[in-house]
Automatic annotation (TrEMBL):
EC number: 3.2.1.55
Protein name: non-reducing end alpha-L-arabinofuranosidase
Keyword Glycoprotein: yes
Catalytic activity: Hydrolysis of terminal non-reducing alpha-L-arabinofuranoside residues in alpha-L-arabinosides
InterPro entries on file: Alpha-L-AF_C, ASD1_cat, Galactose-bd-like_sf, GH, Glyco_hydro_b, Glycosyl_Hydrolase_51
Similarity field: Belongs to the glycosyl hydrolase 51 family.
Statement: the UniProt record of this protein carries the keyword Secreted: yes
Residue ranges of every copy of the Alpha-L-arabinofuranosidase C-terminal domain listed in the record: 474-659
Enzyme's top EC category: hydrolase
GO biological-process terms attached to the record: L-arabinose metabolic process; polysaccharide catabolic process
Predominant localisation class: secreted
Keywords carried by this UniProt record: Extracellular matrix, Glycoprotein, Hydrolase, Secreted, Signal
GO molecular function: alpha-L-arabinofuranosidase activity
Length: 676
C-alpha cells in the first residue's frame, strides 16, 4: 500500500510541476491523473480484499498419539539426465576422453575435441588401435607441417561447455600416448580461444610401438571459467592419443565428486540415494541402457555409452561403484534401480531373461560380497574391501503394464529373495489404490503435475491399504507452466504434498524429488532442484523447500487439526525432532492462497514446556508466486530464518500469502534452558 501511495504522489507531482504546459494540456492531465488515481484506488481496494484470514492449528503432542516417521523417508533420486553426472557431479573435465562417443566403430565421433591448426598442418582420424580391449577407438593425429606455426598444432578439448580452471588449484592429467618417434608434447590449460595460458608443461614422449601412460600435475596460474585443455607439438609425424583425463585434485573426499554440488546434496540430509535413473536405466533401446558391468573397473577400460533417452554420451566415469561410493559419502542407503530386460522400445521375453537375472545377482555380489568373492574381489581391487550395504533394489523403472514386466519381475524377485532375503524389492506398479498382483516390499509412485493438482494430492495416501507393500514416492514434482524454471508456486504445492506424505508415513516409506540436477547448458528436463554450470550452482525454491523436510526422517509425527474458513488453502504437519543438543516441536505449514493468515498454533500433550529462547521461524516466500532463482539472483527465493520470541504453548504467527513456513518451538528440556 505504501508503495502505491508513493507511486501516486510521484506521478501527481510530475503532472503539476511541468511549467511548459498550457491549460488544455493541464485539464487533460487532470483527467488522466484522476483516472490514474481512480484505477490505483480500485487496485488498493482490490488488494484490501485480500483480507487477513484466521486459522487455529492444534497439535496433540501426547506420546501415545505420536508415531515415528521411517528413518528413510526423505532421500535423493539421482539420474544421469541434464548432464547431472557427466559434466556435473562427476568432476572429470574432459568430455569424450576416450574418443568413443560415436561408439566402437570408426570413424567415431570425437566431439567436442577439435584441432589447433588448419587442415594443411594437422589431420586427425579415429582408428581402432587402442590398448584397451573394451574401448578400442583411439585418435590418430598426423602433423603435416615442416615449419609449424608458433605454439604448434594439435588438439584441444573444451570439456563440458568450458572447463572451470581456478588459480592455484592442481589438476591431474592422465593420458595414453603412442608415438613411433621421439616427440615433445606441450600440454596447456588455456582460455577458450587459446590466448590466455593458465598452466603449461612440456612432456617428452620416447619413440615406441607401445602405448605409454603419461601422468602430469598442472597447477593453474589464473582463473578462467571456460578454459580448454590443449595438446600441441611442432614436430612432423604421427601421434596416437587415448583416454585423456583431467581431474581437479580437490574432489569430495578424493572420490571424484564435485565438492560444492555434494555439499548441496548433503544439506538435504538424504537418507537414501536412488540411482542411476529413471529412463536412463531403461534406454530407448536395450542396447543403450545403463549396464553396471561396463561401468566398473579401471576408468580407462570402461567403454562408456550413449544414453539415448537423454541424448548424450557418458564415459561412465560415474559408474556403479561410484554411485555406491556416493551413497556411502552421503550417509544414504543405496537404492539400485536396474534394467529388468525392458527399454522404452524393446523387451526381453521372460523365457530368455535368465542371463539378465544372473547379471543382477552379480551386481549384488559386487556390492555386498566378501572381498574374496568373484565380484566382491573386483570391488575390493577398486579400493573398497568392505561391502556396500545395498538393502533396496528397484526392478525396472516405469515398466508396469509392459508385456514382459510381470514375468520378468517375478524371475528377478524370486532369484534375489533366495540369494539376499533381506533385500527390499520395489515394484514399478502403483498399489496406492489397487492391490498388486505380485509380491513386493515397496511400490513406486511417480507424479508430475500442475501445482493445484499436487496441492490437492496431499491426501493421496490417506485411504491406501495399510496391509500391502509400502509406497516409495520415488519421483514427484510440479512441472509445465506452473513450474517456470523452478517457481515458488511449484515448491509450495510440493511442500503441501510432502506434509501429506509425512502424515501417511506409516505406509509411505520413502520420497524423492525429480530430477535433482540440471547443467544449465543441457536442460532436457525442466524443472530441476539444483541448477549449475561449470562453476556456479543454486537451488530452486523446490530445493530449498526440501531442506525444510530434512529433519523429518526418523522424527515423531503428531496429529493436527486446522480450524479455519480458509483451510482449503492450507496444508500442515507437526513433528518432534532433535538436533545434537535440543528437541523441537516443528510445525510446517503451507499457505497456498493469496491472503495472509493470522495463525494460532496451539499445543497440547507436550512433555516439556515451550521455550521462547531458541525457537525460530523459517519462511520461504517471495513477492510474486512465480518468482525463481537464477545465476544472477540465486537467493531471490530462499528460506529466511528469524527468532520466535513469543513462542509458547499458544503461539500467534502471521503466514505471508503464498508461503511455506517452518516453526521450530524449542522444548524446555533442551540444553538451552539448562544453560540459562
Ligand atoms: O525424472 C525424469 C524422468 O521422469 C525419469 O527418468 C522417469 O522415470 C520419469 O518419467
Amino acid at each position: 500500500m505504501t508503495v502505491r501511495r508513493d507511486l501516486i504522489d510521484t506521478r501527481t507531482a510530475l503532472v503539476f510541476t511541468n511549467p511548459s504546459m498550457d491549460s488544455r494540456e493541464a485539464s487533460l492531465s487532470t483527467i488522466l491523473c484522476s483516472l490514474l488515481l481512480f484505477c490505483l484506488g480500485c487496485k488498493c481496494i482490490a488488494s484490501e480484499l485480500h483480507a487477513t484470514q484466521t486459522a487455529v492449528l492444534k497439535v496433540d503432542a501426547s506420546p501415545q498419539l505420536a508415531r515415528q516417521i521411517p528413518d528413510t523417508l526423505f532421500g535423493i533420486f539421482f539420474e544421469e539426465i541434464n548432464h547431472a553426472g557427466a559434466g556435473g557431479i562427476w568432476a572429470e573435465l574432459v568430455s569424450n576422453r576416450g574418443f568413443e562417443a560415436g561408439g566402437p566403430h570408426t570413424p567415431s565421433n570425437i566431439d567436442p575435441w577439435s584441432i589447433i591448426g588448419d587442415d594443411s598442418s594437422v589431420f586427425v582420424a579415429t582408428d581402432r588401435t587402442s590398448c584397451f580391449s573394451r574401448n578400442t577407438v583411439a585418435l590418430r593425429m598426423e602433423v603435416l607441417c615442416d615449419n609449424c606455426p608458433a605454439g604448434g598444432v594439435g588438439i584441444y578439448n573444451p570439456g563440458f561447455w568450458g572447463m572451470n580452471i581456478e588459480d592455484g588449484k592442481t589438476y591431474n592429467l592422465v593420458m595414453y600416448v603412442k608415438s613411433p618417434e621421439y616427440v615433445e608434447l606441450a600440454v596447456s590449460l588455456t582460455s577458450s580461444d587459446g590466448s590466455q595460458n593458465l598452466a603449461s608443461v612440456t612432456i617428452p614422449v620416447s619413440g615406441a610401438s607401445n602405448w605409454t601412460k603419461l601422468e602430469q600435475k598442472l597447477v593453474a596460474q589464473g582463473t578462467n571459467r571456460t578454459s580448454r585443455l590443449q595438446i600441441t607439438t611442432n614436430k612432423k609425424g604421427v601421434v596416437w592419443f587415448d583416454q585423456v583425463s583431467l581431474m581437479p585434485t580437490d574432489t569430495y573426499k578424493g572420490h571424484g565428486f564435485r565438492t560444492e554440488l555434494i555439499s548441496m546434496m548433503l544439506d538435504l540430509k538424504p537418507r537414501f540415494l536412488r540411482f542411476p535413473g529413471g529412463c536412463f536405466v531403461e534406454g530407448e533401446w536395450l542396447r543403450n541402457a545403463f549396464r553396471w558391468r561396463e561401468s566398473i573397473g579401471p576408468w580407462e577400460e570402461r567403454p562408456g555409452h550413449f544414453g539415448d533417452v537423454w541424448h548424450y554420451w557418458t564415459d561412465d566415469g560415474l559408474g556403479y561403484y561410484e554411485f555406491l561410493q556416493l551413497s556411502e559419502d552421503l550417509g544414504a542407503a543405496p537404492i539400485w534401480v536396474f534394467n529388468n530386460g525392458i527399454s522404452h522400445n524393446d523387451e526381453v521375453d521372460t523365457a530368455a531373461i535368465a542371463p539378465f537375472v544372473k547379471d543382477v545377482l552379480d551386481s549384488l555380489e559386487f556390492a555386498r560380497g566378501s572381498a574374496e568373492s568373484t565380484w566382491g574381489s573386483v570391488r575390493a581391487a577398486m579400493g573398497h574391501p568392505e561391502p556396500f550395504p545395498v538393502k533396496y533394489v528397484a526392478i525396472g523403472n516405469e515398466d508396469c503394464g509392459k508385456k514382459f514386466y510381470r514375468g520378468n519381475y517375478l524371475k528377478f524377485y524370486n532369484a534375489i529373495r533366495e540369494a539376499y532375503p533381506d533385500i527390499q524389492m520395489i515394484s514399478n506398479c502403483d498399489a496406492s489404490s489397487t492391490p498388486l498382483d505380485h509380491p513386493a516390499d515397496l511400490y513406486d509412485f511417480h507424479v508430475y503435475t500442475d501445482s493445484k493438482t499436487l496441492f490437492s494430492m496431499k491426501n493421496t495416501f490417506d485411504k491406501s491399504s495399510r496391509n500391502g507393500p509400502k509406497a516409495f514416492v520415488s519421483e514427484y514434482a510440479v512441472w509445465r507452466s506452473d513450474a517456470g524454471r523452478g517457481s515458488l508456486l511449484a515448491s509450495l504445492a510440493e511442500a503441501a504434498f510432502l506434509t501429506g506424505l509425512e502424515k501417511n508415513s506409516d505406509i509411505v516409506q520413502m520420497a524423492s524429488y525429480a530430477p535433482l540436477f540440471v547443467n544449465n547448458n543441457d536442460q532436457t528436463w525442466n524443472p530441476d532442484a539444483i541448477v549449475f554450470n561449470s562453476w556456479q550452482q543454486y537451488g530452486t525454491p523446490s530445493y530449498w523447500m526440501q531442506t525444510l523436510f530434512g529433519d523429518s526422517s526418523g522424527a515423531m509425527i503428531h496429529p493436527i487439526t486446522i480450524t479455519s474458513s480458509y483451510s482449503s488453502s492450507l496444508a500442515a504437519s507437526a513433528i518432534t525432532w532433535q538436533d545434537s543438543e535440543n528437541s523441537f516441536l516443528r510445525v510446517k505449514i503451507v499457505n497456498f492462497g493469496s491472503d495472509p493468515v493470522s495463525l494460532t498454533i496451539s499445543l497440547t500433550g507436550l512433555q516439556a514446556p515451550v521455550n521462547a529462547v531458541g525457537s525460530t521461524a523459517t519462511v520461504l516466500t517471495s513477492s510474486n508466486v512465480m518468482d525463481e532463482n537464477s545465476f544472477s539472483n540465486p537467493n531471490k527465493v530462499v528460506p529466511v530464518k528469524s527468532q520466535l520470541p513469543n513462542a509458547a504453548e499458544q503461539t500467534q504467527v502471521t503466514l505471508a500469502p503464498h508461503s511455506f513456513s517452518s516453526f521450530d518451538l524449542a522444548l524446555a528440556q533442551s540444553k538451552l534452558v539448562a544453560e540459562m
